[in-house]
Design brief:
Distance between the termini: 41 Å
Strand content: 15-25%
Number of strands: 12
Structural class: alpha/beta
CATH topology of the largest domain: Rossmann fold
CATH superfamily of the largest domain: NAD(P)-binding Rossmann-like Domain
Helix content: 25-40%
Strand order of the largest sheet: 3-2-1-4-5-6-7
CATH architecture of the largest domain: 3-Layer(aba) Sandwich
Largest sheet: 7 strands, parallel
Number of helices: 16
Radius of gyration: 23 Å
Length: 417
């Protein structure tokens, strides 16, 4: 949808551009013949994460752009300054800054280690602020300068804070930079925020979600296309908190299946995005992907026969398999309130697996608390686990990776419930 070479000759300084969303935005601009400063930490191949600043540079140049790889940890101010000076020396200036580098830990206050808090505040807030500050003198000299932060629209509803307070504060810190700088430099530099409506498939998402999570995600291309739309607008377009799908629909894009890893399953709603979208209710009707399965000993449960919770566990019993146990290796405890409340469990660690009413046979790896009604909705595809978690309907303690693995059971069971 974007045939014109609008960014030809422009210089983009992109943090975290060695992989993921940052690299996708870089490659999109490179097709126009743009100059890309790859400001990222990874100079040597990572043990698990793909890509370095040098491999990204080769891809950018193959796409038609010019690349300048710079080792930059945005926690280190001098590294930012050195990279900016090198960019100006090489390309003659800076036209666009994309603050993409970010750190994430979706953990509660008591579970978040101090070093993780420091990392998120240093990278997300302080790194964004310092990189913007360092680039601004050069941006002000550009004909159509832009700063674009990958951060969410700000919504002070407590539900966005209660489950991962430190992370939300840090991302909203990036958004507050947009609010302040857009007004401070109005008429000189455009400052905007971009956020995805659904989860985007990156190496970081694989680490958070484990195998199978990609089926719920969209490709990085959707953010690259949305970023291109923003960065090619005049500098009078400023102070906006843009959701990728909303903007692209306004630009005339109609087929969003092209962005999906697995069409019909791309429904993970992210921090702030559902509040910015009129389609929140529509999104909440679809099930997510994930992985698990188990045997259920419903005969010992005092639940009313064929009641919703008991029926759910009856179906789980039929779905149990040794393969689920082998691949999941986790014990899940459910603390349900309301009708059929009490403690239930699914054991996907012990040989053969088991499930039922009462405490699990061994210490649970994950404890999930919610109402029995929401539990049934979640297992029948009427309530997405991520939306339930983000909205506070579902509280999770323990191993988050295992909690996400359990979601595969929803895909297996939805058609049976």
């Amino acid at each position: 949808p974007f045939p014109f070479r609008k960014l030809a000759g422009c210089t983009l300084f992109i943090t975290g551009a060695s992989r993921g969303i940052g690299k996708a935005i870089a490659l999109k601009a490179a097709k126009d013949g743009a100059n890309i400063v790859i400001a990222a930490k990874t100079a040597e191949p990572h043990r698990t994460l793909p890509g370095t600043i040098y491999s990204a540079a080769k891809e950018i140049e193959a796409a038609g752009g010019k690349a300048l790889p710079c080792v930059v940890n945005v926690r280190e101010e001098q590294q930012i300054i050195n990279a900016v000076e090198k960019a100006v020396e090489t390309f003659g200036g800076i036209d666009i800054l994309v603050n993409n580098a970010s750190a994430i830990s979706l953990t509660g206050t008591l579970e978040t280690e101090t070093k993780k808090v420091n990392l998120m505040m240093d990278v997300n807030v302080r790194g964004t602020y310092l990189t913007s500050k360092t680039c601004l003198p050069y941006l002000r000299k550009s004909r159509n300068p832009h700063i674009l932060n990958l951060s969410p629209p700000m919504n002070l509803n407590p539900m966005w804070f209660k489950n991962h307070c430190a992370y939300t504060i840090s991302k909203y810190g990036m958004s507050m930079c947009v609010l302040g700088m857009a007004e401070e430099f109005r008429g000189e530099v455009a400052v905007n925020a971009l956020w995805p409506k659904t989860a985007i498939h990156t190496a970081a998402m694989d680490m958070l979600g484990g195998a199978g999570i990609e089926k719920q995600c969209r490709k990085t291309d959707i953010l690259a296309d949305a970023a291109y739309c923003i960065l090619t607008k005049p500098k009078t377009f400023t102070g906006n908190f843009v959701i990728d799908e909303v903007l692209l629909r306004e630009e005339g894009v109609k087929d969003f299946d092209v962005y999906a890893i697995a069409p019909e399953k791309t429904n993970l709603c992210l921090l702030g995005a559902s509040q910015a979208s009129k389609e929140e209710k529509k999104l909440s009707r679809s099930p997510q992907e994930g992985a698990a399965g188990a045997k259920v000993h419903t005969e010992s449960a005092p639940a009313k026969p064929l009641s919703p919770v008991a029926e759910t566990f009856r179906v789980i019993q039929g779905a149990m398999s040794e393969e689920y146990v082998r691949t999941t290796q986790g014990i899940f405890q459910f603390e349900l309130s309301g009708d059929e409340g009490g403690t239930w469990y699914i054991d996907l660690k012990t040989k053969g697996g088991s499930a039922g009413f009462g405490k699990p046979p061994a210490t649970a790896d994950v404890v999930m608390s919610m109402s029995s009604a929401d539990f049934v909705k979640m297992f029948t595809g009427k309530l997405k686990p991520t939306l339930a978690f983000m909205s506070g309907k579902l509280r999770i303690k323990g191993n988050m990776t295992l909690a996400i693995k359990l979601e595969k059971m929803l895909t297996q069971l939805t058609s049976k419930l």
